[in-house]
Known about the structure:
Layout: E1 2-4, E2 7-9, E3 26-27, E4 35-36, E5 41-42, E6 48-49, E7 63-67, E8 70-74, E9 79-81, E10 88-90, E11 104-108, E12 111-115, E13 120-122, E14 129-131, E15 139-141, E16 146-148
Antiparallel strand pairs: 1-2, 3-4, 5-6, 7-8, 9-10, 11-12, 13-14, 15-16
Amino acid sequence: MYSSYGSSTNFVPGECNSGVCFNGGQCRGGYSQSCSCPPGFQGPRCQYDVNECGINNGGCERECCNSIGSFKCKCPQGFELAADGRRCTDIDECRDHNGGCQHKCLNTDGGFSCECPKGQRLHADGRTCIDTEPLNGYTRVNSSSLEAVVSFKCLLMTY
């Protein structure tokens, strides 16, 4: 029994005691000052993080992010983590609200695209369709571009 400032502890010099091991490690017992480390930690006192991502990308299909004592698999935009927590599966953006497309939504690997019916083209927003066919003489289609044809008359009003 060792006494310090009037308090009594079970500290026995030379034996592996509490406080020797870090990060949840357990003393191996006896006079050994080494510890049994929980998953994610290593070293004689469990003081070092294991970089799980450094070996086979942590088993992750795409991105592996190491953290203290653990790791996490991540997927790029357009994909979601599968139930196994390692693989990435494509998100079908067209499933929800037609992907925001005015007409047809086409799911692609990691994304989607919108299509318009014949006589229309995709607007700059990538989702809305606008007419390319003649419309009351104001719009016509050239072979490679759209061109507005507008005619007007000015009336001079005198007072």
